[in-house]
Design brief:
The protein is mainly alpha-helical. The chain is built from 19 helices and six strands. The chain has one domain. 60% of the residues lie in helices and 4% in strands. The strands form three sheets. Strands 1-2 form a two-stranded antiparallel sheet. Strands 3-4 form a two-stranded antiparallel sheet. Strands 5-6 form a two-stranded antiparallel sheet.
C-alpha cells in the first residue's frame, strides 16, 4: 500500500496489529445478579460493620495529635491571603503539598471549625466512602474470593491513619481509588481529572502514573491520550493558578519537590540502613534505578506480554500513529487505514487495569527510600488483590498479609521490623513476577465504545 507516495512495509503493518496476535482464552460469563454474587451482600454487611467500628473508635480511642494543627495553620495563612508558599508554614514545618490540599482542607476547616472531634467524624465518613469505592473495585473484578474482602477492614493502622490522625493521605487515596473505579468502567478522561485532583493533594499518587500511561496507550489512540493528559494538566494549572501568577518558582519548587529527604527515624522500611547511607545521593539513585528497571521488566514481560513485549507494543503504537496521520495525506486511503486503526485498539478487561495499576504502585512502594506510618494507606487496600494475583497458597497469602500489618504496627520501627517488611514486600513482588499474566483484553468486543 502507498501513503503519500511512500510504500509502507508489510512488517510495519503487522506491528500495528500486534496487539491482536494472542488469542484470548475461552471463558464465559453470564449476567450475575445480586443473589448469585456473594461479594455484593458481604460487601454491604462489611461496610455497615466497619461504620460501627469507626464510630466506636472515634468515641472511645483518644485522638493522636500529629498534623491536624499544622494543616490548620497552613490553611489559615492561605485564607488570610498569603500566596507565597515560602510563608505557608505550620507546627511541623513549611507547606509541601500542591494547591488541591489547600482547597480541600479549607473546606474541612469550614465544615469543622478547625475542631478535632467534628473532623474525626468527617474523616470517619471519608473512611467509609473510600472503603465503599475499594469494595466496588473488588466486586467488579474476579480475583479475590468474597470472604477475603474482610481483610480490607482488619487494619488497625489504617483505621488510625483515617480517624485518629486525619492525614491528607486519606483524601489523596480516596480520590485515587475513585479514579481507578472510573478506569475500570473505562471512563478515562473523567478518571484522569480525578487522578490529577489526587496528585494535587499529595504527590505519592504519581507512583500510579507509569502503569496508567501504559493502559491509556492500550485503550486509546494517541490523540485520545494527549487529550486526556491535557485535561489532567489543566486541572493542575487551574488549581495552582493563584500561586503560579504570584510566586511561581516558590510554588513549583515547594509543592512538587521530588528530591525531599525524609528523616531516618520515621522510616518503616529502611530503618536497618545506617543513616549516612540512608540520606546519601547514591542510595537514592540506586533505588530509582531499581524502580525503573522493575517497571520496565514488568511492562515488557507481564503487562505487554500478549502484545509481544514492551518494545513491540510501543512500535505498534508508533505505526498506528503514522497510519492515523496518513488520513490527512490520502483521502482515498482513509477508509482502509481507519479500519486497520480500529482493529489495533481493544477493550481492556477490568482485571488487567486493576492489576497493572496496583502492581505499578507496589513497585514504587518497594523502592521508596522512606515509608512513614501514614504511607501504609498508599497500598494497604491493594494488598489482598496483589496477594491473590500470586500463585501462593491461601495460607501463605494470609501469613504475608498479617506479617505486613504487624510490621506497620510496631512503633517505633526498628532494624528487625524494617528488614522483615522489606522481605515480605520482596516475597509478594516475586509472587507477582512469577504468576502468568492473564489475557488483557475483553473477548470478542471491538473498540467501538467511546473514551468518555
Amino acid at each position: 500500500m502507498e501513503i503519500g507516495g511512500r510504500k509502507l512495509k508489510s512488517g510495519e503493518t503487522m506491528a500495528a496489529e500486534s496487539v491482536t496476535q494472542s488469542a484470548p482464552p475461552t471463558r464465559s460469563r453470564g449476567r450475575i445478579t445480586l443473589l448469585e454474587n456473594p461479594k455484593i451482600p458481604f460487601a454491604l454487611a462489611l461496610l455497615f460493620a466497619d461504620a460501627v467500628l469507626v464510630s466506636l473508635i472515634i468515641a472511645f480511642v483518644p485522638y493522636t495529635k500529629i498534623d491536624w494543627d499544622a494543616y490548620m495553620s497552613q490553611i489559615t495563612g492561605f485564607l488570610g491571603g498569603e500566596r507565597d508558599y515560602r510563608n505557608l508554614k505550620g507546627d511541623t514545618g513549611p507547606l509541601v503539598y500542591p494547591a488541591g490540599f489547600l482547597y480541600i482542607y479549607s473546606a474541612f476547616k469550614y465544615l469543622t471549625g478547625g475542631q478535632v472531634y467534628p473532623a474525626q467524624i468527617l474523616f470517619g465518613v471519608l473512611y467509609i466512602v473510600n472503603l465503599a469505592i475499594v469494595l466496588a473495585i473488588y466486586v467488579k473484578t474476579d480475583v479475590v474470593p468474597w470472604w477475603a474482602l474482610c481483610l480490607l477492614s482488619l487494619s488497625k493502622r489504617v483505621h488510625s491513619i483515617f480517624v485518629l490522625r486525619l492525614f491528607n493521605d486519606c483524601v489523596a487515596m480516596t480520590l485515587l481509588h475513585a479514579a481507578l473505579l472510573l478506569f475500570v468502567h473505562r471512563r478515562w478522561n473523567l478518571g484522569l481529572i480525578l487522578f490529577s485532583g489526587a496528585v494535587s493533594v499529595k504527590m505519592n499518587v504519581l507512583l500510579y502514573a507509569p502503569p496508567l500511561l501504559l493502559l491509556m496507550l492500550k485503550a486509546m489512540d494517541i490523540s485520545g491520550v494527549l487529550l486526556a493528559l491535557s485535561g489532567a494538566a489543566l486541572v493542575q494549572i487551574l488549581l495552582g493558578l493563584p500561586f503560579l501568577v504570584s510566586y511561581p518558582v516558590a510554588y513549583i519548587s515547594r509543592a512538587f519537590n521530588l528530591g525531599r529527604v525524609f528523616i531516618h527515624f520515621w522510616s518503616v522500611n529502611f530503618k536497618f540502613i545506617p543513616e549516612p547511607v540512608f540520606v546519601s545521593r547514591g542510595f537514592a539513585i540506586l533505588l530509582l534505578a531499581a524502580h525503573l528497571i522493575l517497571l520496565a521488566s514488568f511492562a515488557h514481560y507481564s503487562w505487554c506480554k500478549h502484545e509481544g513485549g514492551l518494545c513491540n507494543f510501543l512500535h505498534s503504537r508508533y505505526v498506528f500513529m503514522r497510519m492515523k496521520f496518513a488520513l490527512f495525506l490520502s483521502s482515498s486511503f482513509s477508509k482502509k487505514v481507519g479500519k486497520s486503526s480500529s482493529s489495533s485498539l481493544r477493550i481492556l478487561n477490568k482485571e488487567h487495569i486493576v492489576t497493572t495499576m496496583f502492581v505499578g504502585n507496589f513497585i514504587g512502594i518497594v523502592c521508596a527510600r522512606s515509608l512513614h506510618y501514614q504511607f501504609y494507606s498508599w497500598y494497604f487496600y491493594s494488598l489482598p488483590y496483589l496477594l491473590w494475583r500470586t500463585n501462593y497458597p491461601t495460607l501463605l497469602r494470609l501469613i504475608l498479609f498479617v506479617g505486613v500489618e504487624l510490621c506497620w504496627n510496631i512503633y517505633p520501627s526498628n532494624s528487625l521490623s524494617s528488614v522483615l517488611l522489606l522481605c515480605l514486600h520482596l516475597i509478594i513482588l516475586l509472587g507477582l513476577w512469577s504468576s502468568p499474566p492473564e489475557y488483557p483484553y475483553e473477548e470478542n468486543k471491538p473498540s467501538s465504545c467511546k473514551n468518555k
